[in-house]
């Protein structure tokens, strides 16, 4: 039973675009229902993990890599008086982000380009422009060097074919001392390890069904927290914060697969929260959150 085959980089790139085009369409179920006042009220209450380590970001030029449509970081960051550039492989994702901002009354534009350019010039020309969206791949140079104050990337690196290439371009796009805010999938999380570990891929029935019926990207490959930290440091960053909190769910996840009783699920969640108090289980958390500072060019 074999479920994997060798693919060329072009095949993987096309497969990724198609996968995220399909995933982004799920947002069309809720985007038409957006009510501006209620949406802004919800954004003001949004929990932002890095706020306990740094002041809220304001008056910054921010690059959101693999911007997606689900987490509302883009309108949140704009509401916090920042200018934002969002890039994504999926043209559908870019269009849906523009639609979300249109419904919120936020001025945004989708642009196309062939060569790296100075994004700041576009914001200077159009003072009311708050966001720019670009279809692009973080593994290739997109913008002129040292333009952005912040780069935000949530669940992106493990979807790339080359994490070092992606980190190199993130470094190049940041100003000296700029911040890289990163959330990444942890391969040590048991349910992720089962579906992604390499030596089981060719015979992995769990992986097969996760790809066929679930949201598992067939090309993604998570790493350990230590791997991410090492690669980020090698890319010219100083890692200031590593956070495993708020993202551990194992007992609760397994229980929810088989039991619908709310009291049982709540109790299972308490077990997960207790495990988080211990040092060792943190390394098996779903995600690792990293706050890094650019200290040198690469």
Description:
The chain is an alpha/beta fold. It has helices at 9-24, 36-44, 73-79, 91-103, 119-125, 163-173, 190-196, 205-213, 225-234, 251-258, 262-277, 279-282, and strands at residues 61-65, 83-88, 108-111, 131-135, 148-154, 174-185, 237-243, 287-294. The chain has an eight-stranded mixed sheet with strand order 3-4-2-1-5-6-8-7, with helices on both faces. Helix 1 packs parallel to helix 4 and helix 10 (251-258) runs antiparallel to helix 11 (262-277).
CATH architecture designation of the largest domain = 3-Layer(aba) Sandwich
| Helical amount | 25-40%
CATH superfamily of the largest domain: Vaccinia Virus protein VP39
Rounded to the nearest angstrom, the radius of gyration is 20 Å
* Overall residue-averaged pLDDT value: 87
Strand order of the largest sheet: 3-4-2-1-5-6-8-7
Distance between the termini: 43 Å
Strand content: 15-25%
CATH class of the largest domain: Alpha Beta
Structural class: alpha/beta
CATH T-level topology of the largest domain: Rossmann fold
Low-confidence runs of at least 5 consecutive residues: none
Number of strands: 8
What profile does the largest beta sheet have?
A: 8 strands, mixed
Element string (H = helix, E = strand): HHEHEHEHEEHEHHHEHHHE
The number of distinct helices, counting runs of at least 4 residues, comes to 12
Query: What is the overall silhouette?
Result: globular
Number of domains: 2
Tags for this entry?
single chain, alpha/beta, Rossmann fold, 18% strand, 298 residues, 8 strands, eight-stranded mixed beta sheet, 2 domains
